[in-house]
Amino acid sequence: MTIQVQDGPAVQGCTSKTLLESLEQQGVEVHYHCREGFCGACRTKLIEGQVEYATDPLAFIDDDEILPCCCKPLSNLLIRLA
Amino acid sequence: MKYTTFNQQATNPLLEPMFFGNPVNVARYDQQKHGIFEKLIEKQISFFWRPEEVDVSRDRVDFQKLSEQEKHIFISNLKYQTLLDSVQGRSPNIAFLPIVSLPELETWIETWSFFETIHSRSYTHILRNLFADPSAVFEDIVLNDEIKRRATDISRYYDDLIFATQLWQTQGEGTHVVDGISHKISMRELKKKLYLCMNSVNALEAIRFYVSFACTFAFAERELMEGNSKIIRLIARDENLHLTSTQHILNLWAKGKDDPEMQSIAEECKDEAIAIFMNAVEQEKQWASYLFQHGSMIGLNKDILCQYVEFIANHRMAAIGLDTPFEIKSNPLPWMNNYLNSDNVQVAPQESEISSYLVGQIDSEVSAGDFGDFDL
Ligand code: FES
Ligand SMILES: [Fe+2]
Ligand SMILES: [Fe+2]
């Protein structure tokens, strides 16, 4: 699966890693604190595509936002980092 | 409306707003209007920790090695943290419990406050280890002008809401004269005070605290005061959750998912909310000047700390739907993330100064069969 960062690079996504891990391992810096879905620091806009959550996200996110630290891609994604 | 500890009117909590609806009655959690607060309670309880479990004894040696300016930074920072948690340990209870209308939110507020008292207790644990008598440090918190200036702003919105609520609950809406000053109490005014207070709490926990965390972790980056840093990491993990809760409350209001009047107040008071955040940022920058007045320390100086305040403020303001006022785009203190990562926050039992961990383990190994000979 391809994760396209708007105005940025494209990286490979997979279902065995969180989106945050995939982005980091391929050199894309994402702001984070907890890495467990409760602080909201990694809030990211999801423009296209679908994700699934391994843990229930507790942080506030808007309808068009995702928490890369606790989700995995289900399709190709287009995202915009904060 | 008079406060009652058990509202005998049958109410449907699924239809109540978060605040200023009917007083709560049955503490039930089988159903929730806003399920997020129930999840936050569970998460927070799963974080339970005790300051005594963290060994801070090595910090004493480190502390003696610090330069005078570093000691000033370290102790001033700790005083500020003590102030913030003194306020947080009591204020959500006193300000929000008398006006809350949802049982899950009521319990979230109590759980949240309880953890603030753990934070407060941990400062005593830290200071006792550094000084034979920590009284001078504690006493300076109410004498030091730099700290007092902060205290005024932090407690102001809470105090305002608490006083107006007291008038409303004892005398109702209308104009009331207290000590020669007249106060106009209306539901709209009360709700405005609540809205501003919630913003100020969010600014406190989501911005002000992070400035102090940066100072703590800057020492740890140099492998100094690591016991203290371990405790502050546990505190930071809790604060992550607290700031999430007030972000949820503010967003539920702003998006019209709770009390519709709160949505219109959020619109109306947007500039005041922005001003609360901008003020907090300004004050934190002044605080940075005070901290570094005798010179900076390796890895941290006034300018970087001020940039970090702006960076964090942008994030926090965006999270509650406010514009991001600062230019800064990348994190000036990237190592902060490592300390705020909850994976790294575990109290290692073998480090424990006390034996309760072991005691617990032994206790749990006692099986029912061990009591076989006892007849009741
Ligand atoms: S890093 Fe905390 S929610 Fe993603
Ligand atoms: Fe706290
Ligand atoms: Fe807190």
Describe the fold and architecture:
Chain A has 82 residues and is mainly beta. Chain A has a single domain, classed as Beta-grasp domain (Ubiquitin-like (UB roll), Roll). Chain A has one helix and seven strands. In chain A, the strands form two sheets. Chain A has a five-stranded mixed β-sheet, with no helix packed on it. In chain A, strands 4-6 form a two-stranded antiparallel ribbon. In chain A, a hairpin with a 4-residue loop joins strand 1 and strand 2. The mean pLDDT of chain A is 95. Chain B has 376 residues and is an all-alpha fold. Chain B is 63% helix and 3% strand. Chain B contains 13 helices and two strands, in the order ααααααββααααααα. In chain B, strands 1-2 form a two-stranded antiparallel sheet. In chain B, helix 10 runs antiparallel to helix 11. Chain B is globular, with a radius of gyration of 23 Å. Chains A and B meet through loops of A and helix 1, helix 8 and helix 11 of B. FE2/S2 (inorganic) cluster binds next to loops of chain A.
Features:
heterodimer, A: 82 residues, mainly beta, Ubiquitin-like (UB roll), five-stranded mixed beta sheet, two-stranded antiparallel ribbon, 1 helix, B: 376 residues, mainly alpha, globular, binds FE2/S2 (inorganic) cluster, binds fe (ii) ion
Write the layout of secondary structure elements.
The complex is a heterodimer of chains A (82) and B (376).
Chain A: E1 2-5, E2 10-12, H1 19-25, E3 44-48, E4 51-53, E5 65-66, E6 71-73, E7 77-81
Parallel strand pairs in A: 1-7
Antiparallel strand pairs in A: 1-2, 3-5, 3-7, 4-6
Chain B: H1 35-46, H2 59-65, H3 68-96, H4 103-130, H5 135-140, H6 145-171, E1 174-178, E2 181-185, H7 187-221, H8 226-254, H9 260-268, H10 270-291, H11 302-319, H12 336-340, H13 356-364
Antiparallel strand pairs in B: 1-2
Bound molecules: FE2/S2 (inorganic) cluster and fe (ii) ion (2 copies).
